[in-house]
Each structure stands twice: as structure tokens, then as C-alpha cells.
Amino acid sequence: MRKLLPLLFYFFIQTTIIFGQTGIEKITFDQDYKDTPLSEVLLNLESKKGAQFFYKDDWGIEAFLLNGEKGQDALIGINDLLETYGYSLIEYKGLFVIVNQEGLESYQYEFWEENDINLDQYKIIGSGKPENSNLPVVVKGSIKDASEGEPLIGASIQVLDSSQGVVTDIDGNFELPLVPGKYKLMAQYAGYEAQSIPVQVINEGELEVELFNQTLKLEEVTISARSQEITVSEKIAGREILDIAVIKSLPTFMGEVDPVKSLISLPGVSSVGEGTAGFNVRGGDPGQNLLMMDEAIIYNSSHLFGFFGAFSPDMIRDVELYKGGGPANYGGRVSSVLNVNLRNGNAKEYEVAGGIGLISSRLSLEGPLNKDKTSFILSGRTSYPNWMLKQMKDPDLYQSAAGFYDVNLKVNHTIDENNVLTFSGYLSDDNFEFASDTAYVWKTKAAIAKWSHRFNSNFLMQTNFVVSDYKSNIENNQENFGFDYTSGIKNYQGKIDFSYSIGAAHKLDFGISSLHYSFDNGTFEPGVQNSNAEAIYIPQESALESAVYFNDEFSISPKVSLVYGLRVSNYLTLGGTYYEFDPNSPKSPSSIIDTLTYQNGEVAKTNFGIEPRVSFRWLITPSSSFKASYYRTNQYIHLISNTAAISPVNYWKSSGYNLDPSISDQYTLGLFKNWNDNLFEISVEGYYKWIQNVVDYKNAATILLNETLDADLVQGKGKAYGVEFMLRKNRGKLTGWLGYTYSRSLRQFNESPFDEEIINEGVFFPSNYDKPHDVSVVMNYKFSRRFSMNMNFAYSTGRPITVPVSKFQYEDFLSILNYSDRNQYRVPDYHRMDLAFTLKSGLKKDKKVDGEWVFSVYNVYSRRNPFSVYFTQRGNAFQLSVLGSAFPSISYNFKL
Q1: Which of 439, 511, 569, 865 could disulfide-pair with 497, CB 3.0 to 4.6 Å?
Q2: What backbone phi and psi angles, to 5 degrees, belong to 610?
Q3: How confident is the model at residue 628 (pLDDT cuts 50, 70, 90)?
Q4: What structural domains does the chain harbor?
Q5: The pLDDT value given to residue 325
């Protein structure tokens, strides 16, 4: 048997095929060969020409039939035949060796296996022998917190002495392509001890890494949502991720961390002012953002009119924002997608954490129900701001009362290595009673059941079933004027997502979803003693939104990647009562010519949408990249509002017989650059967004409890464009970022032939959220391991408003105001500075309580930022400032 020596092949990987090179004696066939077994030909050449050939008997050389002519170059003829079977001929020091070149490193593996006395120090990945060792195989795995088992997002794993490396995704998973061989890998994450991992890669396999907290060696605080180079390497344009460590580092109002509000410090994200729920992304309104908590749609993102976040910080793993449509698995909104990802409970040991503040407190408990198999985390918050309201001088305020609570529960159960079940629940309640007579109430309920299944290392499935219920109430308790007003929205959703990896450079996601809506558009019930009003019941609506999608993430080359996808959506308006208006008259109750009634479940109207998405990334250098993207999205439900912020009188309405879905097309271009070993990063990104069928209301329209609301709504066009700039410092005692955005958000309503349905004479005008200049500065200075200071500064152009420009007055009895075109004026500019100081407990590893004191001052220099300007019937103006003074606070956070 002609077995190849492993040591010889170890040297062969240093050589190249040398056919045609000088210095090698030409060997020719001395006879004709017709369908002759190659093994016989080689024996003849060895006996007559003195050549030597090495190969393995089990390769089946005798089955390779050769055809050759006398005088033909023998080595070329033999090599041509071998290549048809995936083999080749290599010359080494005059010895001709038949080699399966594509599997060459497999013999390097054999050499290690037989000769490496330290083999037990290497973790073996894969088994057998490589199928094609010149091509990389994919090492898949995860990086987790060793004490809690929680995924570490943005952790890096790199090949030592090489530029090869990747970072983990939002689930803590990574895919690292490596050619079979021996490597030393380094896993790292800020605040954790780095781990060196010797591996021997044979075939595709898995690598699970656990990192331990680096309590004593922590030298700096890094304000970084992900690995420092991820801004350059991220393939999806417009994607931002903030992990909870970054969120907690920002100054807060009354010491309460708000993950959603923390996004406002990023370019392209803003709000209309203090005391407002919701946020605005690239000129969109709050109702154009898809807000999810572990895939459950949440319709109220805050507590107490926006002063507190809707989610407990102890539950949050990270906050993921797509400033556009995002990948094709997301849909339903034309502005942005925000997913608040909750963490799993500690599967190894019990922990208690919480915080005590001046007007709110929270407590969470987590631990294993079945160690390393089933975990839970339970968190609750409550507030007690009434003592502060009692200190106010305004009688309307010191007679008021407010409060909220929320509860989160998540249970994670690992059935086996291929199946995981997750159950989550969320409950929140807000109550604000103004001057002891009118109470505003918001309630949210959500439940999520998730099954994750792995068919194999390349093929994954995730099934979700979600229920979400949001209700808003206004209750008046006055004896003769009492009433109860309610509205809300409820949905059931089923969704199945698949993910299939095709090698290291190709990942395909696809799936299907169906979402059923029930809309409560308003119910008014007078109190028992209120004889001046009658009950009003606006007919409820329902709809079914379904979609199929695929999304392909493809690396064309190490420098060029493409993420493209297609979402096909279908929206069925089910049941309800609709009005048909006279096409020759403006829409109004008097122009109704027919009433159409559909039974429950009967399709009243069908809408269909095709939504392509594509994101391109080019790594110009390892530290710089160019990105471009295009997203189309459809939005089938509309937030009906005549205010700039979400309020208790806003409600959701379905597209239907007279209301079309909104359609958005967004284009982006961006440049991203890191330098000085990722110490600094800079980015510039421009965008243009065009929206069809945006919704607004006629002048003097009635929004609340309007049975013929379709007559008072108009639809038109919207456009938004801007440039976003970000400069970030990632390491050192001083870290942080500077963000600047120039943007415009405009609307146009000119498609109706009737003047009553045209706004501002049909020309573009600023939307309620048009704020051309927006600046944010975030800094974190680390004085020592225990003491740090955080600063946040925000500036923006004042938002647009409509003001009276003249009035008609008859004596003292009659005054009629004449208003300007819509949103032609602005309130004064907004600016504010916040400071926070954090003092951590001692650095001993064995301390029983890990705590920190947080001292913060919101609105340090007491700026009276105007929320809006209001006018009396006589035209006298007054300015409303929600917060007109500095708000200091102190809170204590702990973990047992």
C-alpha cells in the first residue's frame, strides 16, 4: 500500500504546483494508452522513467482511466485526468505526489492528531475530515455571561495575530468562518475578563463561550452599544442598538431610567418636548413607529405623560432601533421599528435587584426554576408622586393625584439543545386625576409565547403567538357633568420565522405572519346624574393584516455585502359601517349619499402591498465603509390626533372604505470611519423619505366621538430629508458622543378639487415635528473606578405652531381670531442640560450587596422651555412650559 506519510504532507502545503516550470525534467509517455487504469500507468512510468509517485490505495486510482498518446507530456496528461476527480499532482524535490488538493489541510489535521502531545488542550470543532479544506467552514456559537447565562451582545471573538474576527448579534450568537486548522481565539467584552481559547477546526461545529465579570480590573467606562468597529461593519443601514449599560449611563429625570427616551440622544431621533409620550424618527409622527417588547406590539411607550419609560430597566437586555423599514421581517409602520428585547432570568442562581427613588421604586427577582434548564425573572415598579404635587402652589396641581405601576414576567425553558420555550407577560396601569374631578387612565396588557426550534446547525425556526391590549379612559366625576370615555385597540398575532445559513457568507430569513386588530374608536357614557348628555357609541372596526417575507443577507466578497428582501402584505378591513359621499361635493355629513354596513368578518375592503428592501455595504478599508439603502413600507392603521404628542384622546383607526394606507419610500447614503484603533468613530448619513397618503384633519374638524370622521380627514403627501452626523469617543476616562441632525419634515394636501379639503392653499408646509436643527452631546467622565459623572446637553429648533395674525372685535362682546396658515410660526428654541453623578459600592468580589447611589439634576440651569403657545379668545398669548426649573433627585440601585 502506498500510504502517504503525514509528515511529508505537512511540508507539501508549503509547495506549489510546478508544471511547466524550468528545472524539471520532462517525462513523456513511451507508448499509447487507451482507457488504461491510472495505477497501471504510474507503475510503468516508475519502472521505465525512474519517476516516483505517492498516493493512497483507498483513493481508487485504479478506477481512473487514462487516454494518452506516445510522446505526450505525461505529467500534464496525468494532472488533467486527476483534476476531473478533484485531485492534482504536486512535485516535491523530484518526488511526484498525487494529492487531493482541496483536502490538503486534512492531512495537516492528521499530523496534529498523531503527533501533537498537547492535543488535549485544544477544543475540537467538528468531526471526521474536512470535505474541502481550502474553503472555510463556519464555527457557530454564542458568548454568554458565565454567572447568569445571559447573552452578551456585541462581544468580539477574534483569531490571535490575525484580522479575522466577528461580533455577536442581539442573541449573543456569532458565525466565524475559518479554514480547517489550529487557532487561538480571543473572546472579549467590555467589563469582562478576556478568554483565550485554543481550537482545532475540522468541520462545521459549535463553540460556546462564557465570560466572567471583571470586577477588579475595570479601568474605564465605555459608552458603546456594540463592538467598537460595528458601526463600520454593520450591514443594515440605519440600525442602532443601545444595551442597558449605555442606557443607564445617561442622566435621567427623577433618577428613573427610560430606555425609549435615551434614543433621543441619537441623530435622527427627537421628541416634541418634556411631558410628551412617543418619539419622532426622521420627521415622522409617533404613530408611525412600530414599538415592540419581545415581538409584542406596545401602543403606549411611557408612564405619566411621558415622564417615565414604560419598561423596567431591570428587565431590558437592549433596545434595537431601525431608522427606516428595517429588514423584511418587520412591517406595518412607515417611520421606524423599535424592539425592546427583554433578558432571560439567571439560570444558575437567585438574584434580587431594584432601586429606590424619590417618586418611584422597583424590585426584580430572578433565578432558576430548574437549574441550567428553566429560569424566570419577575419585575415590578410603582410610583408615589402625590407628595410632590402637594407642594405645588397651583391649586389645580396640589389637588391632583397621579401614579402608575407595571409588572413584567418572563419564563425561559430549555427542553433540549434544539428546543426552547419562552413565556412573557406585561401589565401596566397609569392614573392621573386632575383637580379631583377628571381622571385619565391608560392600561396595557401583553402576553407572548415563543417556541424556538433548531432543525440543525444551519436551520432555525421561531414561532410566536402574541396578544396585546391597550385601553384609554377619561372619567369625569362632577355630579351633573360626569361621563366615562373609552377607546382602545387589541390585537392577536401569530408569526413563524425561519433562518437558514448557507455557508459563512449567506443567510436567508423567511416567514409568515398574521395580525388581527379590534379597534374601539370611542364610547361616551354620561354619568347617572348627567341629564344633559346622551350616550355615543362609535361603531367598532376590525381588520386582518397578513404578510409573507424573505430576507437575504449575502456577502458578495469580504468587503461587499448586500442585505435585500421582499415583504408582501395584505390587509382586509372586516365588518363596520361606512359612508359613501357625493363626489361632486366636499365630504361632510350633508354629502352622504349611502351608508354601507358589513357584518362581522365580512370583507369591506382589501389592500395589498409589495415592500422591497435593500441595504448595501462596501468596506472601503477595514476601518471605513460606505452604505446605501432603500426601504418601502406600508402602514395600514393610523393614529388619529390633533396634538403634537400622544394624549388620552388619541386613538387608532383602520384603513378602510374612505381611508387609504400610508406608503413610504426611504433612501439613505452614509459614510462611516473609525481611526486610532477604534478610539474614535465618525459617521455622516443622509436620507430622503417620501410618504403617500399621510393623514391630517380639516380646519375646525372634530376628532373626538365623530361618527362621520371620514368627512373631516384628508390625505396627502409628505416628505422628509436630512443629514445626520455623529462623532464618538469609545475609550479613556472621557467617553461619549456628539450628534447633529439637519432635517426637514413637510406635508402637502392639494389633491381634492374642493377648497375645504385643501390645506395651506395646497403648498408644502412644516409638519408638527419639523425641527431643522437638533444637537445632542453625551459625555461620561470616569474619575475613579467607583465615581463617575454623566452629562447630557440637548438643543433643537422650536417646533411649528399656528397663531392668530389678526382679529375682528365688536365692543367687548365679540372677538373673532384670524389664524395664519398651518404651522407657519415656531415656539422659541429648545435647550437643556442634565447632570448625573454615580457612586458605586466597594470593589470587593465577595460583597453581599452590589449597589450604587445616583445623584442627578434634570434641566440644570432651569430653562423654561416652551412646550407650546396658546391664545385666549381675545388673542392674548401665553406660553406653556411643562418643566420650568431644575429637578434634582437621588436614587439607590442595588443587586443582591
Answers
A1: 511
A2: -115, 120
A3: very high
A4: 6-99 (3.55.50.30), 106-214 (2.60.40.1120), 239-895 (2.40.170.20)
A5: 73
